[in-house]
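#structure-requests
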Amino acid sequence: METPKKEYSDKSTEMTTMVSILEKLRKKGVDKEFRWTDKGFCIADSESFYEPEDLKIIKTYRFEGESSPSESSILYIIESKDGHIGYTIDAYGAYSNHENEEGYDEFVREIPVVEKDERLIFEP
């Protein structure tokens, strides 16, 4: 009796890194960084500011540091009501980089999450 072969998807074992996600965004032309300010999120080279209700989180990626879980970060892919797609990175622990970390965290928690399939974000 022949044993059926098990098929494994390469995607299930594929390691996702922050660099690989940022590179996919760059290739797609949607690599704008949403930066935190006291007026809300803004995109570099833009005078527009966004409130949480102007945005939605369409994908979230969590990364843990190799040497310590305290070196963790979250990459949020964000879409604005006016059609911009970009990202913000929340590095926490020793590498936190937001001037008003508590304000940033509260702002991000208020952004609605509407997860999209990766293929809709990255594929043409």
